[in-house]
Design brief:
Shape: globular
Number of strands: 5
Structural class: alpha/beta
CATH architecture: 2-Layer Sandwich
Oligomer: single chain
Number of helices: 5
CATH topology: Nucleotidyltransferase, domain 5
Helix content: 40-55%
Strand content: 15-25%
Order of helices and strands: EEEHEHEHHH
Largest sheet: 5 strands, mixed
CATH class: Alpha Beta
Radius of gyration: 16 Å
Distance between the termini: 23 Å
Number of domains: 1
């Protein structure tokens, strides 16, 4: 598990947050890249999705992540926003799977609980924990970038437990 690279994605159509983290141990996690992919709301949907596809594919090709962690599409009041998030998420999931990455999805409350210790933590609390855990000079901005880093950190916390659980299941079936 250690020595892995994790790409965290906070999917969105206008702003898609990303963070690439390297994990040397459960306590040694560093940020290699944190940012936001943007598309113009003035462009056609197909063009915007193609841009997200190209950018995420570029991140996967550049950083060669072992795992891609994506925030699970959750209920939103605005149906149009939910559809865009779902479409962007689908592109990321497909690209990650095609690249042979471990693909994981986490709910917002799982991410908050893992990173801040409380499933109802505020964005500011999550951002501050991201800053602290990664030893950053400031909270990543915009919030989509901090959220992507939190998603990747969540995976870094949960994945070792899940791997040991799977190994225990395999051993018990022998």
């Amino acid at each position: 598990m250690f020595g892995h690279v994790v790409l965290g994605i906070d999917p969105g159509l206008t702003r898609c947050g990303y963070a690439v983290l390297s994990m040397s141990s459960s306590q040694e996690i560093s940020a290699r890249a944190i940012g936001v992919l943007r598309t113009s709301p003035h462009h056609d949907l197909a063009v915007r999705l193609a841009e997200i596809h190209e950018e995420v594919e570029g991140l996967i090709n550049e950083f060669r992540p072992d795992a891609v962690a994506v925030e699970q599409v959750f209920f939103q009041n605005n149906v149009r926003t939910a559809m865009g998030v779902g479409q962007a998420s689908g592109i990321v999931l497909a690209l990650a799977s095609r690249a042979g990455c471990v693909v994981a999805q986490y709910t917002p409350s799982q991410v908050k609980n893992s990173v801040a210790g409380w499933g109802s933590a505020t964005k500011d609390q999550v951002g501050r924990m991201v800053q602290q855990r990664l030893g950053l000079a400031s909270i990543p901005e915009p919030a989509d970038a901090a959220d992507a880093a939190a998603i990747a950190l969540c995976h870094c916390s949960i994945a070792p437990f899940m791997a040991s659980q799977q190994q225990a299941i395999v051993r018990s079936q022998r």
